[in-house]
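User: My collaborator sent over this chain with a note saying "see what the structure looks like." That's all I know about it. Can you take a look?
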Amino acid sequence: MSNEGNGRDDRGSTAGGAPDRDNGQASSPGGSPLFSRRKFLAGTSLTAATSAVLEACKPAEAPGVSRKAVEVIGPSPIPISLQINGKPRTLSVEPRATLADALRVELGLTGTKVVCDRGACSACTVWLDGTPVCSCMTFALDAVGHAITTVEGLARGDKLHPVQQAFVECDAAQCGFCTPGMVMSCAALLQRNPSPTLDDVRTATSGNLCRCGTYPKVFEATLVAARRLGKGS
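Assistant: Without extra context I'll predict from the sequence alone. Here is the result:
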């Protein structure tokens, strides 16, 4: 007896005589497959690939160093000691605090200016072991153990640094926000090159942004200071 209404006979064959196999698929009421071996294998492969990528992204551990041995500090303020302008200064800062904030807020050394606060203008330039750095992009904790020099530390008592003095005489400042950073960059140049050319000064201040446009006066003042230092004055 055959079931002519649905085109299927008692042997499980379709009307065309081909065996009816589901190929490992479960079907929805509408006849579309919900799950198949191919989908299963594809999903398994994707999971394995994702696990491999995540494993490769894990930070490598140094030989002999256990993660349990890493000291975690913060988020509360912690005491640190900074060597600033030749003197040790003790303060408490949060681990996220920048050197610029530590100098200005915690220690009152407001000669260092924060203008862009993202390392683009160099107004916050200080020296770290004699090298100019943007203090707004330097963590205070990273400055521990290094010699820090700010614009306040260039003068010797009432006697200004030759670059500071030349900036005053040559009228190299207008609004004044960029001036401390400019002075620090130019003084650092004279430290490593006592007889700079105009191009040397331009290169040394290429990262210092002056919105007032006093660059010609800054260049002039630096060359004047270099001549004075060359004469031993």
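A starting point for your reply to your collaborator: The CA atoms of residues 190 and 196 lie 7 Å apart.
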